[in-house]
Amino acid sequence: MKIPPMKEIVYIELGDTVIEILPVDDLRPKSGNPWEIGYRGIAIEVDDMATAMDYLKGKGIAIAQEPIDLGNSFRGEIRDQDGLIIELRLWK
């Protein structure tokens, strides 16, 4: 997947929650590409990836991407009812 160039990344802190905003160039209408304009996904930090995945599976939630080791973190993925990405992230 080709990631489009980003102008900047903005972090907004709300208490112990951080929102990361990633504006991109070459804005186009919505397609199936997860790297496009508007809200396309959300990331949630978890304390224990295996426990989080087991909990979600126990609630009948399908895992869209099993956790993978990215070196400095583990990343898994589920989708909401509209197909938008909900990323689960465990930082090492």
Automatic annotation (TrEMBL):
Residues 10-88 form the Glyoxalase/fosfomycin resistance/dioxygenase domain. This is Glyoxalase/fosfomycin resistance/dioxygenase domain-containing protein. It comes from Kuenenia stuttgartiensis.
